[in-house]
Automatic annotation (TrEMBL):
A Gene Ontology molecular function term of the record: L-amino acid transmembrane transporter activity
Transmembrane segments: 14-38, 50-70, 91-113, 133-153, 165-184
Pfam families documented for this protein: AA_permease_2 (PF13520)
Protein name, per record: Zmp:0000001267
Main location: membrane
Keyword annotations of the record: Membrane, Transmembrane, Transmembrane helix
InterPro entries: AA/rel_permease1 (IPR002293), AminoAcid_Transporter (IPR050598)
Phylogenetic placement of the source organism: Eukaryota, Metazoa, Chordata, Craniata, Vertebrata
GO CC annotations on file: membrane
């Protein structure tokens, strides 16, 4: 906590690297490794899939820029809650945060934890489907460990976030380089008639956007801890430029 003469406040221990890691590490989560197959199968063609991903990326970028500006104007932690509180009042803010804590965030965290657990236990059950009990046990354990780490020390949580983001970036680079190598080897069959078989139904497009936006989710993460960021008026603007 901060100096008692200034009242109760959070220590500003998150720098620009930690801030980028919080957003990048959250966005590069289980969704980016799982959603592509569902986007492709839902929309029906590689060309339309690229368009969906581009549109989702544009929406996420615009949302991130808006939140960067909001974070500099209202330098308080809480993101959507604090913005709704300052604009729509206490009742609407309470309704939002109640549903957020009781439904939205637990459901999102559970999905991410289960995805992580499936990948974590898969090597121990090669050739067969891992038992659900083991998957759920690992998922619950991961949630508990991360909760304890975040409660104990902000710097430790930030350091872990930086390391995990670096690992995930390396994994993405390996996947991208593998795709580039295959392109140079002449595997371009997926780009021939790339829009053939596109599903133009409203439901297909909506589900594809849902899967794509799920992968980009996390661009608003830093605003939940604005009061813990060093010089948020500078860090948020730098992140917007990056």
């Amino acid at each position: 906590m901060g100096d008692d003469t200034n009242g109760l406040n959070l220590q500003r221990e998150v720098g620009i690297i930690g801030a980028i890691s919080f957003i990048g590490g959250t966005m590069i989560g289980s969704g980016i490794f799982i959603s592509p197959q569902y986007v492709l199968s839902t929309i029906g063609s590689p060309g339309a899939s690229f368009i969906i991903w581009s549109c989702c990326g544009l929406i996420a970028m615009l949302g991130g820029l808006c939140y960067a500006e909001l974070g500099t104007i209202i330098p308080e932690s809480g993101a959507e809650y604090i913005y709704i509180l300052r604009t729509a009042g206490k009742v609407v803010a309470f309704m939002f945060v109640f549903s957020f804590i009781m439904v939205m965030r637990p459901a999102s965290g559970t999905g991410i934890a289960l995805s992580f657990a499936e990948y974590a236990v898969a090597p121990f059950y090669s050739g067969c489907t891992p038992p659900q009990l083991a998957v759920k046990f690992v998922a619950a354990g991961s949630i508990l460990v991360l909760a304890i780490i975040n409660c104990l020390n902000v710097r430790l949580a930030t350091g872990i976030q930086v390391v995990t983001m670096a690992v995930k970036v390396v994994a993405l680079v390996v996947i991208i380089l593998g795709g580039i190598v295959m392109l140079f080897q002449g595997h371009t069959e997926n780009f021939e008639d790339s829009f053939e078989g596109t599903n133009v139904g409203v439901s297909s497009i909506g589900i594809a956007f849902y899967q794509g936006l799920w992968s980009y989710d996390g661009w608003n993460t830093l605003n939940y801890l604005t009061e813990e960021v060093k010089h948020p008026e500078v860090s948020l603007c730098r992140f917007a430029v990056i």
